[in-house]
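the two lines:
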Amino acid sequence: MGKPKSKEELLFPTKTALILVIPSLFLFIFFNIWPIAFSAYLAFTNANHINIYNPDYPARPLMFIGLSNFMKLFNDPAFYYSLLKTLLFLATSVPLKILVGVGLAFLLSTPLIYGRKIMRGLLLTPWAIPAILSVMIWRSVLDPSYGPVTQFFSFIVGRPFQAVGTIMNEWDSFLVYNIIETWLAYPFVMTVVGGAISGIPKEIIEASIVDGAGVFTRTTKVVLPLIIRTIAFVAVLTSGASLQAFLIPFVLNDGGPMIRFMGKLVNSNDLLLLYGYHRFMRDYEWGYAAAFYLIVVLILSVYVYVWFKLVFQRGGK
Amino acid sequence: MTSVKLYLLKLFITAVGFSITATLLYPVVYIFLTAFSKLPTISLDAAYFTLDNFVTVINDGDFRSSLFLSSLVSGATVFLALLFITPAAYAFSRFRFRGKSTALYSYLIFSQVSGGFGVASLVALFVFLGKLNLVNIYVLPFLYVSGMVPFNTWLLKNYFDNIPRELDEAAFVDGSGWWTLMFRVVLPSSRAPMLVLAIFAFMGAWSEFILANLFGFQTLPVFMYRYIGARTIYWNIFAATAILYAAPMIIMYMVAQRFVGEAVRMGVKG
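prediction for all of em together
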């Protein structure tokens, strides 16, 4: 690379910069962007696990089939059921995460508590554990024969609680998805909202006390309006996690029990990403799965556009 | 409010707080205690306390080969991450060049949906790696690093931004070449960011499950996943495995604690 010849070159050495940036950029594009572009090709073919490696496979030669995969997708009850379940999951898990996270942030922000630091440290535990292990830990406490959480819920509902195992209940397992998703995400909500609460100037709180506002009024009329933007911001971020939930349904019970929907057997809790994975790994309909995942990429792009707008309305991160 | 009343109120709120904390941490405590139990569940009876579960796990050849594979893949990922990402982050921090902000924004946006895009590209990735005959264990660390590029470039760039560039300029005035600049000035002053990158790369590779499972490489998470997929599950053995698996992560987490928040905010974890 030689010596920088001038201060100008030290500051703006385009060539050097490119040499440093391109290897990682190439790696990123090759393994992350290219497969998505390649999906767009697969989506218009009848690819499966045989003809993709052997295009002239007599029973089903590899060929372009136009929009057939998309037509099939939009006529597939299982697709709609998965979409419905994902939206439902968004509608239930996001408020739950916000509720628990904001509640804990308030709890940790009151001066009326001992051992705040220890408590905060303990509450951050789900962050220290990789998500995959967390889900497996939940699988163990939910075990149908030994799991204490299953025993507890069975006691509460007065019938066997069947979230995982050979006999499953659709809504029991959906409830458990919500609980685990909340468990994984509350440290994030708690930390960000807690930061916003501690950022409120003391004078505002003191002034409201002088004005005679009680704890409840102070919380709802003074503090909450000041942090509502942060809460909205966190809600958008954490919706992304719910929308992209994959490990929970996959590792916990592989999409829950099969049910009949509009005359077709479907996995009742196939959240969006898992639905495609099942078409890929169970049905070996690779072209169809690619078409589906193209739709998912579209949905995620809409989501990330909303997120991007929001970040920039807040004046950057 | 009298001080006695205030004291009681504080005690009450503290008790409520710790009850909530205990409830939330219950699954973790449960796994921890089960690992030392002779039964596949918690037992507070001292007669059922045992360390045999750990012995069983360590004597399991399958576990040991998974541990070896995980260590190898994680080590290679750390090395490749440092090799690929450090120079790029340095360039993004120090130099101006065409396309810089486009690349940075793309990284930022992508890191927000990397989990979903990752799964969405599995079919195509599987097909094209298969066609290129690239499905082997050596590709796994490259795959991991490629997924880490967007977020970690940002993370490291922010660290480099905080290292005064006067250092670079002073070295330039001294008339040193690029190599001297790199190895004598830049690298020593960026030990901390590189340590952070190494920790993140290790944690990422150690806990990656979806790709390893898809391609059938039995790293530790895949080993555990297969274990709990069996017909009979000895949860106490699983718990011991989980503790051995989590130990290095917990240590790393303690070192990297203050950076984890940032990682989650940018959507890397979970």
